[in-house]
Fold this sequence. Notes:
- It comes from Paracoccus zhejiangensis.
- The longest helix has 17 residues, at 86-102.
- This protein has a 7-stranded mixed sheet with strand order 5-4-17-16-18-19-20, sandwiched between helices. It has a 5-stranded parallel sheet with strand order 7-6-8-11-12, sandwiched between helices. The protein has a 4-stranded antiparallel sheet with strand order 23-24-25-26.
- The radius of gyration is 24 Å and the shape is globular.
- It has 2 domains: 3-306 and 386-479, ANL, N-terminal domain (Rossmann fold, 3-Layer(aba) Sandwich); 500-623, GMP Synthetase, Chain A, domain 3, CATH 3.30.300.30.
- Helix 3 (52-65) packs antiparallel against helix 4 and helix 12 packs across helix 13 (369-379).
- It is built from 18 helices and 31 strands.
- With 630 residues, the protein is α/β, with parallel strands linked by helices.
- The chain binds coenzyme A and adenosine monophosphate (AMP).
Amino acid sequence: MGYREVYEGWKADPEAFWMEQARAIDWDRAPTRAYFDQGPAGEWFADAMVNTCWNAVDRHVEAGRGDQAAIIHDSPITGTQQSVSFAELQDQTARLAGALSARGVGLGDRVIIYMPMIPEALVAMLACSRIGAIHSVVFGGFAAHELAVRIDDAQPKAILAASCGLEPGRVVEYKPLIDKAIEQAAHKPDFTVIFQRPEHAATLVEGRDVDWIAFQDDATPADCVPVAGNHPAYILYTSGTTGQPKGVVRATAGHLVALNWSMKNIYGIDAGDVFWAASDVGWVVGHSYICYAPLIAGATTIVFEGKPVGTPDAGTFWRVIQDHGVKSFFTAPTAIRAVKREDPNGALIGDYDLSSLQALFLAGERADPDTIQWAEDHLKVPVIDHWWQTETGWAIAANPLGIELLTVRKGSPTHPMPGYDVQILDEAGHPLPASTLGAIAVKLPLPPGTLPTLWNAEGRFRKSYLDHFPGYYETGDAGYVDEDGYLYIMARTDDVINVAGHRLSTGAMEEVLAGHPAVAECAVIGVADSLKGQMPLGFLCLKKGVETPDAQVVKEVVARVRDQIGPVAAFKTAVVVDRLPKTRSGKILRATMAKIADGEEFKLPATIDDPATLDEIAVALKGVGYPGKA
Ligand code: COA
Ligand code: AMP
């Protein structure tokens, strides 16, 4: 069957389609049906009983794959490689799960995981799912304040962490960040478990912190606990328009079914193959495609601790693909742009044997046609853009290599996947004709594996995703579908920006800037960047009578964002202006400001209060090296 038959087959009978896919999962109690019309947006396989860790680990040991590598850790930063077999992974997760149970962590309890790219991060996630605890992984590049916000929202019983992360040339000590976060948070976890890495030994707080090895060494291994199909497997916080992140909930059964389907049908991966997603466990790509999906499918996953360039050079990706026989490779376009910048002719690619590689998958931000072309020319495999979000957990639109490689149109992530009825809507919610730009929405229900709600925030879930277009899920992206059904993702419709494939909230940064005593008003926009796609840029209006020099205030707000959100925000530039361009009702015209910064043509907003403010912005931007008004 080709893509068209598969998609139409799903559309004709979604219930039968998903019940068929569910057969690939080991159930403790099989679902009697797929879709349940309950909860704010529907639920999947809600009457089943199942365990994620069993499906990702134990069943493969039982099926004779115990000696196969489940995880290969490759760290060009430490110069080490390590392989963990499915049998070893089973033993490690069972012992950690047993130790957590012994300390009172059980079904539905939350556990925060703050870990770098080491196998123990996956062990921690799987150990939680083994006993029905709900994990929430926080990206290591986030600062203490962001961790504190997540601790208060998730209210974890425990934190599982490592002593440090490793950035090129820098050891990032995690314990001081964790201590500060726990101090700031109103909720206090019962205990923390620290994995001491050889690069840095953290000082443990007596009575609260325990050493990972001692903690799980003689623990009684825990069995897999069956949980209800709609039990949350995890919470993953993602950026919204405000400083309060959204806790995306992932329900267990749909997650298993959808991820398993995606491995074979989108990525062309079978049990025994090697799959590599060069992302981080702190992001959704890391949850779905470093940890869960490859393991559920019985494939080997690569945990890579390094960067596309500089660890040690722009050939690192190709070395890893060669050394471990990677079949499908997934990264962000930014990473390829970084490699291309260092090695424009792809000279280093020739140094490696890439015969195992069948395709390169790109997601996380728009894949610009130049980057795709470069990768196609030099890697000589299909380069597949696919589009999805933390909320969906797997691709909304892709080129399903495992079903049929469709003709690639550069700039388009191709077609919707089964489960997603993608529509382009006007402001009033009416479907728009082909090739017309509009809001991208998905007709409800969303497929298995997507979010059923936000953690402790059903109202926000409805408001953010369901209320604007009744009967649809609002993606927050704008774009169009061409005459042949190819989808194009053009921009966000909200104040979320995308920096090096990392989703960041300009609202969160504005909250930090506004907290500076000299700042009366501020705005943050995303401006085009040839490497990272977008970079944040701040505008500051200072309070009357402030005597601190502008440059000093800018330096201080840059330090504040790094300290309160984290280095990953990459907030490096701000300009002081007298006033911000606004509509007559007081809304800051961020999109117009971004167009001016990028030197793009723009229409004067009809509702602008004072057009002269745009000229002032253009002058200020020119002063810091931007092209200014087109
Ligand atoms: N822990 C602590 N700090 C971290 C971190 C982590 N896990 N990850 C990133 N940082 C820090 C970096 O050290 C850097 O700090 P600096 O300001 O002191 O230099 C900052 O956060 C920004 O990091 P990053 O976005 O990685 O940019 P970079 O300039 O170091 O590297 C690229 C540029 C393009 C090589 C890099 O962004 C990259 O690899 N991108 C791929 C993105 C990706 O995989 N995204 C996942 C979505 S699929
Ligand atoms: P995240 O939740 O971090 O995965 O970010 C999701 C957002 O990243 C989407 O809503 C898009 O704005 C953007 N995005 C992800 N993948 C793509 C893609 N292939 N093309 C264009 N934008 C993308």
